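NADP-dependent glyceraldehyde-3-phosphate dehydrogenase, pasting as requested.
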Amino acid sequence: MAGTGVFAEIVDGDVYLYYTEGEWKPSSSGKNVPIINPTTMKTQYKVQACSQEEVNKIMESSKTAQKLWAKTPLWKRAELLHKAAAILKEHKAPIAECLVKEIAKPAKDAVTEVVRSGDLISYTAEEGVRTLGQGKFLVSDSFPGNERTKYCLTSKVPLGVILAIPPFNYPVNLAVSKIAPALIAGNSIVLKPPTQGAVAALHMVHCFHLAGFPKGLISCVTGKGSVIGDFLTMHPGVNCISFTGGDTGVSISNKAGMIPLQMELGGKDACIVLEDADLDLVAANIVKGGFSYSGQRCTAVKLVLIMESIADAVVKKVNAKVAKLTVGPPEDDCDITPVVTESSANFIEGLVMDAKQKGATFCQEYKREGNLIWPLFLDNVRPEMRIAWEEPFGPVLPVIRIKSVEEGIHHCNASNFGLQGCVFTKDIAKAIMISDAMESGTIQINSAPARGPDHFPFQGFKDSGIGSQGITNSIEMMVKVKSTVINLPSPSYTMG
Ligand code: G3P
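Structure tokens follow.
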């Protein structure tokens, strides 16, 4: 059970502690932040409301720990990461329980998130050992005009203190996708988990603690965004921010200053369906891509663009599948579970009502109880509707019927987002041309968008992000190149 057994030391009474200098501590603020269970809408857990002074102390110890860690051999870093991965997987049940209670993730998906996170850590350890041990050797005579008087050796050195801010929807997986690359590359980590999902993240951090990482190398600070949010992201001790989330990312990037940023801020991933597509495959991907975890994935299908001639057939097949989705509590492993907060549910409802008022066709009856919204496929959506452009982050999926492929591509490219997209067709040449024309970080051919496999590059264009993620790219992003140039005395220097 969460907060018991090996996890007993991370909680005091009914309030979870924060993690600093290798210890679990209460905040001197004496305050805490409640975490509301999206299903019961009652307080499920409480976490510490840390102060700015505590953030300052964390930054100091993080900097000190990083200096020593940077000298730790790669194989030793990898060994500890493998250990953390094994401990995490061993304790998948209590961590998954937190995900069910805090973010209403369906029970089986919650376990999958933890196991996937362990795999991600192990892969990162192995990838880091290989790639970080490699540098470059360059000679000057390959540049016109120079003789061979200079030799350059490059290596990869850590950035320093990495601030990791994952989102509520994958508070474990999208935390370790930042933590593991940072650590293998010789950095220290300050983790600020999302409020919903914080307790799962604290359990995950304890697995790193049990693995035996040095004190101060990993810290986890919880609290109110209004008190420590800007203070963390603008802190002079931070050398890089890796953020996944919503609009807050724009304000972070405006304030962060001259440090590397890795950001993923959501999307409006569109699915373009051509006439020759396998319609059963299309329907299966639309439903899985649009409705898994109730549409609360940045890579969820958020818009379907179907050629008019096949639209009726696709809508019929999708509706048949939507009718089979189970709706209810995450403990019962339902397909559709309550969305994360009441304000999210209200926002989704606002998009639905706007579409209704402007004439969209509701394929199912709109139904909501508390934070639980029944799956809804909206046909005949038009560009003047908000849902044609905005990201619901809920189980509500709009369809726009298109007359040409160009119309579909034009709509996608007019969006501020550019995370992923997908195209369904049997004509591979056409699919590649569409991929080339779409201004998105990734285009999937004949499959719904997805971040995984976790070692694939993952990047957003336009307002969807900065930088590229995925295991290898994240490791590369969390180092800087250091050159040492050996200069020979002069071209005329002789060996005799
Ligand atoms: O919403 C975050 C995004 O990374 C989802 O990941 O693997 O479900 O596509 P995935």
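Note for the archive: Residues 273 and 306 are 5 Å apart (CA to CA).
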